[in-house]
Amino acid sequence: MNSFELFVNENKNKLNIFAKNYIEKLEIPTLLKNSIIYSLVNDGKKIRPLSFLYLLKFYNIDFNKFFDIALAIELVHTYSLVHDDLPEMDNDDYRWGKLTNHNVYGQDVAVLTGDAMLTLTFEVLSDANVNNDLKIKLIKQLANYSGAMGMIAGQIYDVKQKDFKVNAEYLKRMHSLKTGRLIELPLSFACLIAGKNSEYDLIKNFGKELGVAYQIKDDILDYYGKFEKIGKLPSDEGMITYLSFYGVEECEKLLKNHTKVAIDIAKKLENDLLKDYANYLLQRDK
Q1: What is the pLDDT of residues 95-152, one digit of tens each?
Q2: Dist CA 105 CA 84 (whole Å)
Q3: Nearest Cα to 220, choosing from 178, 281, 164, 158?
Q4: Residues 264, 269, 272, 275, Cα dihedral to 10°
Q5: Quick one: which H or E segment has residue 96?
């Protein structure tokens, strides 16, 4: 078990408790509160918020003071999954080993739950204990990376594949936006909070390479993984993925190559913790 896996095991439940307590204090309809908690508090990997806290630890910053920003990162990610699971998108019945939100609360409430989490993301971030100039940078970057120029652009490329010529470059661009942006974001946040401006570009490039590697691994697991491990059923039927485009052997090579580039960047930064993070994603089985 490497350092990132240990960090996840030590802090995932802490983040779940923090998130549950935060939502329970909100003066909102009980139905909406229960629906948000149902999707937000789960047995998912939570690598995005935890990679943010993990890098802060490397920078010798007390990461326990920044669980609110970690929550904001997880809110925007979870909102995207609740909407992804809807019949109009991926039409998934299971997520994290339990029924998807719309199968429990209905499609109408699931849409509103996603909307609520997205807007709550920015409220949480606006209350974060960082100086105002930095806060504006974080809010703008989160909006950019999760919105029309980031994750949502990638989702458009994904759901409307038939309207485009899908080639290797298309797949890379689609997944760099759809998945990669929210892998980059937490690391960029930690770098900005730590004031490590000289490392910012390298940290972003590390995140970009890991974002592509993460999606390739996801495509492999989505096809070959077992429900008991990954907590969901295959949902890419009829869609072009890395696996359907390249085949499993080439995907394994691409996965290792992108991970190696990320690890080489971590070596330049003399950051063994990031190396462990990259290796964790490479070797994960869910």
Answers
A1: 988 999 999 999 999 999 999 999 999 999 999 999 999 999 999 999 999 999 999 9
A2: 15
A3: 281
A4: -30
A5: none
- For residue 49, the model assigns a pLDDT of 98
- Provide DSSP, 154-180: HHHHHHTGGGS---HHHHHHHHIIIII
User: From CA 236, how far away is CA 119, in angstroms rounded?
Assistant: 29
C-alpha angle 177-74-161 in degrees, rounded to nearest 5: 25
Model pLDDT, residue 117: 98
Residue 39: partners with Cβ closer than 8 Å, 6 or more residues away: 78, 81, 82, 95, 101, 113, 117
Residues with Cβ < 8 Å from 75, sequence gap 6 or more?
Answer: 40, 117, 118, 120, 121, 124
Q: Which pLDDT does position 224 carry in this prediction?
A: 72
- Give the span between the Cα atoms of 147 and 280, in whole angstroms: 28
Contact 211/179 with Cβ under 8 angstroms?
yes
Q: Decide: residue 194, CB within 10 A, 0-12 exposed, 13-18 middle, 19+ buried.
A: middle
CA distance 48 to 277: 11
Q: Hey, what are 172's tokens? A: 């890379």
Return the DSSP state at 99.
Answer: E
- What is the model's pLDDT at position 233? 53
Please give the Cα distance from 185 to 74 (Å, whole number).
11
Q: Which residue has the tokens 């994904």?
A: 158
The Cα angle at residue 132 between residues 131 and 136, in degrees rounded to 5: 125
